[in-house]
């Protein structure tokens, strides 16, 4: 350890320094090397020693006035006596044992002196002093009436020892207690709740003057700590607030202000003590009190300037000035009018500065003295704070810090920092996990629906089942853990950085917070808000070292190029998603047509018909018949079919027992069942298995009615999945242990004779147990309400249940074939779709008055659509033809237009339409009943097409290499983890934008025509594990561009209700429904008569490493990927600007608005200049070129984009970047002088909300930087001295 020689010598030689003990000691010390050559290595010298605390000074000579010879730090030191008799060389010996060092031998003149020195040394250590302080704390806690008072002793100002402190305690009567080391559990503090809409009693700015100099005639490093004394809390001084440290100033003016709120227990009679400290050493926060002043809050809360002397044991030691004002509320459009009017405003105006003098009385129309002769007097101006009640709906646990700055013209700049947690941190990942759980269930249903296959294909089936069960278990376990954290949490709504390696919480973003800075320049009457979402890197921390997503995807793509079936699997998956989406859209169109038919409203029917026809075209061209025929032939060749005679006698095979156990996972979707399902309990996958039922007769259950049983997505038993997974793994190992001959011999052969009938689901009984009566199938006619036996209650049915998209998408019978069910030929399915559409459109045209319109013709095109990954030769198409398929002539083209085509043969004078022949418009009273049969047939046909599509997907997945499935599952899981974190951060930012920001019509015009910009700023290095994090972030941010966002009207039951977004869709097509406030509809920015506003975002990601690892990465040439990514994102940003500049925005009402305004030539030129400069810096090869990030921030703010800043844990480097951006905004937009920016930024880093964020994560107010890491940072990103040190990151 290195000491300041001048300071140490001054302390030892100062005659005013009071030492605990002085006297002669014999010290045995090592000789110099020259003397070691001639004699003993050690020599004993008589020295004059001085003990001060745990510092033992020894002088060069025995004279007490000789210079200082050395210093011994008595920490971790144990003095012992080896023998009581005096030693001839060293006298009465004392051995000082140090941890990790060799012992030191010293000696006293007599036994009494030795005992006194030992006692003094033992009591001087920090451990001994700490034990004394703890004993004092226990005494005070025992005397207190409440047990909670003991917890308040953990956060008091530091204490010094000596007679001066004893006199200090006598004057104050009650001691300020030192901070106690917090335990690991106490570091996780309870959430700090504060009402953002509450007006404080007053806000106070502080300054000092005439502070005394130290012994070396140096000005102090001043800091003020405010403590409060509550009588109902045991008369204990508790720290309330503190200022920053002003170095070397006898008249410091502090930037940090203090707020006193009624909800915190402050009244006019509350006693406050302001203590001024001289911070001697910032690393260890060693400080000495200069003086203090005690008063009540009512003394200065109404005084615009209150000056009081500071007192200490030496008398007066300077003056303290308090400048207080009562803020007014400032309506920002972010809350309702009733909330704004419910806040009581005050009339006290703030002073221009803390040295300004106002006369008594009203201050709004009075001017104070000038700061300088060149400046005009201060005009009366009301101090206002933002109303942010809308922010508390989407965020929670606020932390506030306030500052008062001065502009270049001497105007006041008031700054309020707010740090809040997002309420959506846990809910968004849960919804995504529910979607992915449902996806794995669908894939399990697909594999089991193929039936049992023979040979090696059975092993492939089991392998796929094992893979999906593993993913299902992982997703379910993650969701269950998140729910448990929400129930058992401590009120926090974020994931701490110390938990980032917790695998059970990996779907949650790390340290997600909203950093908001509200600024107002009184002279310019200019108000602005800067919102930055700070979040840890979107990555899977538990999977580091395996390569990031970019590397994994590139390796997977290269491997797929060598596989012939890899592209087919992707094409099949795309076909499944397209069929699901098109079916849903067509059903929604039919539902709208049915509603119009009930009202007999022809207006709008024809456009809906045109849209339905266009979507039907796409649906018919999803698959080519030749591809479907190959898959069906594969199923017929390898599926094991039971003979009807052996169905009841043979036991189930292991595969079928496993698929039967899948029912325990409740593979049915947690929503509703399909109209086509019988109203009995749904049959098992294998119909001949026994069913344990305790009732007889009718067992009626409406499958398309939601029952009170818990949803499988929320009540899924992890133990059930785990046990089933173990069974599958055992069976898989058994199959792998068999050689091909044995494996083929154990499979029952397929009966291929023509005369043997095959057992299907339709030909087998529902229940095969003879001991129980057979259940009766009751099919429901949806046109009329059914007559059902009263054995079991049944929910009422509606006639249009088959048009419910939830019922349709979650029905197993509408999405999958049964294992024993034969697939329908594709051409027959397409023919049924065409016939249903023609019939439906003809009837609608008839209702619209086009009675003479012939039926439209729907036929296949001549040329089959060529899909990527499927190569079909023309010769193969000519030679093979599916058997028993209804075909249509191939000489005519597909025509889906409503206008009839010219016939090529003679026709009679009157057009005849067989679909409408016999209908009389005047006699048709119920249009809906005429349309419903065609709609129901179309639904059935689309269901069968989706079933066939799923079957094709299963076949293609089964035929590819099994290693591909495992690799794909690992990549997909990692991608889901990263995407969950990214989408949570994005949805949180969007909700803040709509609920806590003042918006105008231009912003919604931007949403509708272009979509908002989302700028993600990264500070990751491309060396070590952070290179994988950067790779994961690139892919996760890119995936956000495919998400659709839709604005819906919020339905809130109370003022405290939380607007909760809803996520729908699948992994390939997600839609997020964002609830927006009611007032956006009331003022006309949104309309309920128009379609919901839907948009996508444009994400850009710029990353520049700034730490020591970034230096290593640049030296080793590992930043090429970063340069390429930054350039690609710059091109995207430039393209966004070009499209943005073409939007016809309206002119703003006032030039001070920061929201989207008209694109004037001046603003366009400014943006173009910024982009040109950014292009230059992106192309330049400069080490740690952070100018790229700064220019991107400026462009994003000009384009009204959303801001995100990330590093590994969003704590240390992110804190440096956010505070720097806040300083840049203050300088550029609010006229903060350039020379004041470093001090303001350092104040925000040391006393602002970013330090609160560090404390919330690790329990210490220390950034996790060491000295070498700080030196590697750019100068503008370095934390102030004393704010960093050893801490868990």
TrEMBL record:
List GO terms (cellular component aspect).
cytoplasm
Q: Which UniProt keywords apply?
A: Hydrolase, Lipid metabolism
- Enzyme's top EC category: hydrolase
Q: Does the keyword Lipid metabolism apply?
A: yes
Which pathway features in its UniProt record? Signal transduction; phosphatidylinositol signaling pathway
The protein's matches in Gene3D superfamilies, at most eight in alphabetical order, are given as: Pleckstrin-homology domain (PH domain)/Phosphotyrosine-binding domain (PTB) (2.30.29.30)
| Entry's family note | Belongs to the inositol 3,4-bisphosphate 4-phosphatase family.
Q: What is this protein called?
A: phosphatidylinositol-3,4-bisphosphate 4-phosphatase
Organism source for this protein? Drosophila lebanonensis
**What is the gene called?**
LOC115629097
